[in-house]
Amino acid sequence: MKIEVYRDHLIPALISVASVVERRQTLPILSNLLVKTLENSLVLTATDLELQISCNVEGTIDVPGAITLPAKKLADICKALPDNSVIKLEVADKRAIIRCGPSRFMLSTMPAEDYPGLEGDSVHQSFEIDTELLCRMFECTSFAMAHQDVRYYLNGLLVQIHSGKLVLVATDGHRLAKSELLMPALDAWEQEKQLIFPAKTVSELKRMLGGKFGATTIFEIGDRSVVIRIGKNVLTTKLIDGRYPDYERVIPYSLKYTTTIDRETLRNALTRTAVLSYEKQKGVRMTFADGSLKLEVSNPEHEEAQEDIPIVFNGDDTTIGFNVSYWLDVLNAMTGNLVEVRFSDSEVSSILVDPESDGELYVVMPMRI
């Protein structure tokens, strides 16, 4: 095996696949990545047996072949090489020699035939979606996923297909983020489909989508796994086995009041007041009154912060406690200039909506302060 590849072409693919590799492995070969040549390119593949990423890189193939190389060492070496340099890789006598200008490295290898690839299920259904739109949907929902919750299905992100819509939902039981997109191509899907993506898959998929490896993304859906094609790169993932809860039941659509606030003004005010919030509770008291929104926080050290924001509101004075971090997560996820807040009282969850982004909705539960 003998190949040449530009360092700047190799690095993005190398970073994508190497991120799948866990530090501790039950199988030593899983610390490696598979390097396999095609006619005018090479394919890098890494897996942890739950998630697999393959990235295609243009290169000059002098002698074709396949081998596995230590993922972290290879990535660290290539990242330390000069920009715009050419990397030469040659495999002989179970050793890989990497040359770049005056630099020379020798790495151990393991046979390609021993590499345990992750194969997707038989494809039952597939669809195609604009990569930029899909990236936005993941960005504005994934932050609400649970972490190490005993309800294991909440530790992932729901991708739901029904009634001609693609819907992404994440919740940790205290807040919920939802993004939906009308897709006429999905009208033919008579049966609802629920896919629960693991958190690691969501993280790696966001990285690949953000890299804009392809203008469109293709989903190929099997019984227990999904293959996602972004340009010439492929992500294969197993799904979380379980039924996601009925999230529509926790969305309070009939709320008494509505007000619209400048997003940046509110975000900055919450950021300042959060400095003095009680670390364990992160509580902020919000009082919606005639013409203003008052933000108040305090902590056990008897320190206090207060902010007043002008708003258009003519209802009864209403005070509700919230976790300030949940609000900041939502405001940071939004991209518009305004945020529409819908609320009733301190016993009912509130809804935040970006008026400039159709299909995005956020629910935040109140808390006692």
Structural features:
DNA Polymerase III, Chain A, domain 2, 369 residues, 3 domains, eight-stranded antiparallel β-sheet, alpha+beta, 25 strands, elongated, 6 helices
Description:
The protein is of the alpha+beta class. It has 3 domains: 2-114, DNA Polymerase III, subunit A, domain 2 (DNA Polymerase III, Chain A, domain 2, Roll), CATH 3.10.150.10; 125-249, DNA Polymerase III, Chain A, domain 2 (Roll); 252-364, DNA Polymerase III, Chain A, domain 2, CATH 3.10.150.10. Helices cover 18% and strands 42% of the residues. The chain has 6 helices and 25 strands. The protein has helices spanning 7-18, 71-80, 131-139, 199-210, 263-274, 324-333, and strands spanning 2-6, 32-37, 41-47, 51-58, 60-63, 66-70, 86-92, 95-100, 103-108, 125-130, 156-162, 165-171, 175-182, 193-198, 216-221, 225-230, 233-238, 257-262, 283-289, 292-298, 304-310, 318-323, 338-343, 350-353, 360-364. The strands form 4 sheets. It has an 8-stranded antiparallel sheet. A hairpin with a 2-residue loop joins strand 11 and strand 12. Helix 1 (7-18) packs antiparallel against helix 2. The termini are far apart. The model has no long low-confidence stretch (mean pLDDT 93).
Q: What would you call the shape? A: elongated
> Low-confidence stretches at least 5 residues in length (pLDDT < 50)?
none
Mean pLDDT: 93
Q: What is the domain tally?
A: 3
Order of strands, widest sheet: 6-2-3-4-17-16-15-10
β-strand percent reads 35-45%
CATH superfamily of the largest domain: DNA Polymerase III, subunit A, domain 2
**Would you state the CATH class of the largest domain?**
Alpha Beta
- Specify the structural class: alpha+beta
End-to-end distance:
66 Å
Largest sheet: 8 strands, antiparallel
Total DSSP E strands: 25
Pfam families: DNA_pol3_beta, DNA_pol3_beta_2, DNA_pol3_beta_3
Subcellular location: Cytoplasm
InterPro entries: DNA_clamp_sf, DNA_polIII_beta, DNA_polIII_beta_C, DNA_polIII_beta_cen, DNA_polIII_beta_N
Subunit structure: Forms a ring-shaped head-to-tail homodimer around DNA.
